[in-house]
Amino acid sequence: MNHIIGAKSAAAMPAVKWLLVDEESAGQRLDNFLMRQLKGVPKTHVYRIIRSGEVRINKGRASAETRVEVGDEVRVPPVRVSEKLADKAANPAPGREFPLLLEDDSLMAINKPAGVAVHGGSGVSFGVIEQLRQARPQAKLLELVHRLDRDTSGILLVAKKRSALKNLQDQFRERETGKTYLALVKGDWPATLKVIDQPLQKFLLPGKDGMEGERRVKVTTPEDPDGMRSITLVKVSQRLQGATLLEVTIKTGRTHQIRVHLSSQGHPIAGDDKYGDFEWNRQLQKPTAQPGLKRMFLHAWRLQFNHPVTAERVALQADLPPELKAYVDHVPAKTPPV
Asked: What is the mean pLDDT of the chain?
């Protein structure tokens, strides 16, 4: 709950804020509480206003380590945010709800469409989480539990309580979740290739005019100190003419893991504009005998996790979206050898 006193505009006239601590924020250190409330304000400035005594809890001075409790009133002095963030506040993301697979008091699981980033940044002004927050202004907390690439569709978890966020992120980190994707790859996937255990390394492409280049990932050697061990399990779902539909389960959640692992085996994902076969992609876009494929064929299909409150195992499934199902249905099955 925010009460902003005497504010004339979000950008031009910073004002004193009085923040009321709710149950979701109770128990947090004062510095962490303020950093979540003062998005866009540098950490050094947050610590400076605490040390100066300008931040007060129930009218008394407090240190960065002080834990805030339910009902505490926190005084925050005027602080300026960058023009970029002020502009963002003045022009918020359009509110949008997404198809729900599950929702309760702790979390929500949505079926994310392709072409929508999960959050703003890297040239994208807003994503799923900003749109959800705008659509649900009454929600005390909405945070991404994990991420999906912009062009990947399927199951995405959003936490509605901080305790649920920590519990679920711990499960992802400890590999207690089950994540299976559907991917259409070029060529005939070898039946014997069921496990890809290759380390991955992030790198940047050369930038232009002094700007940082685009982020990429590549397979590296086990000896590479910058390599991160990455394990992908592959099962053939359907053999088609010129392509194979795979069920891909990831044991590690590295950036672009599925895309790079499959491409490294000579079977890139259909429509992948970073690691794919670009000539093949162009052919796939042409609506000949089947509908053209206008996006990357990678879909977060199934997800299993333990519910953060009940500890019961939850199993979710998001069927292939219509544009991907239509494509598979129109590609002839591979004829077995006589």
From this structure: 89
